[in-house]
Amino acid sequence: MAGSPDHKPDEAGPGVSMLNFHSFLHGGTSSLLSAVIVFPVYKTVFRQQIHNTPVRQAVAQLCREGPLKLYRGVVPPLLMRTLNGTLLFGIQDSLIHQLSSQKVLPSSALPAVAGFGAGVVEAVALTPFERIQNVLQNSQNDRHLPTLKSILVRLKTQPLAFGFYRAFLPITVRNALGSSLYFGFKGPMCNAVEGQGLSPLVSSFITGTLTSMAISLALYPVSVLVANMQAPVGGEATGWGACWRMLLRSRQRSVALLYRGGSLVILRSCVTWGITTAIYDWQQKHSG
Prior knowledge:
The chain crosses the membrane at residues 24-42, 164-185, 197-220, 257-280. By secondary structure, the chain is mostly helical. The protein has a single domain, classed as Mitochondrial carrier domain (Mitochondrial carrier fold, Alpha/alpha barrel). It contains ten helices and no strands. Residues 1-16 have low confidence and may be disordered.
């Protein structure tokens, strides 16, 4: 299992290199499969975050637009999720080996610390993908930015901090904390669930479901902030602090309105990370 503290640093060499390769490969394939399944749920959540609409209204809006529009913008999230899983699992596993060899941290803390580092790298690599995805899924951009090419051309004309790397700081905070918590709790929770007599595959699915559900709900306001910062193109360039204050005002400083879409986040997290964790752990155990 990735992130397990029982990796042995004295086994460095071709075996470790192959193990790291498997971590990158299996992380990418498991994330790709889960992304295809949950994209409609993600898009419904996004509409709620941007337009502040109830779930029924968001679903009705997507139904009126039809199946072709439903999967508009699917390419960036597929690429992003695949790269996300590749980097997250692969780098975390590589950092585990590096930190283990240095013996500067207790073994129980290694998965969480390595996860934090992987989350930072993930934010650097994936912020442009998330930016493009949020611009594509904002229906208010359909008229003046109808294609992926037009979006890329427009973002290239802007400074990085307001173009491709808009909302980089909150994304880094969200990803680093989320990854640290996920890998920190993944191993112990999976062992506890498997100890109840469940199969390893079911145990991994339940572990991914429970950990990601808790993390997603805790960090949901940050995701709402990111979506609202990244969805528009042009206009006044404001920092994350000003955007956060504007967001609170638009939600009438109501926690319930700020968490609108939270129920679907639970569903999305259950499906996405439950499947991802189960497939990844299964591949790792059967890679030989």
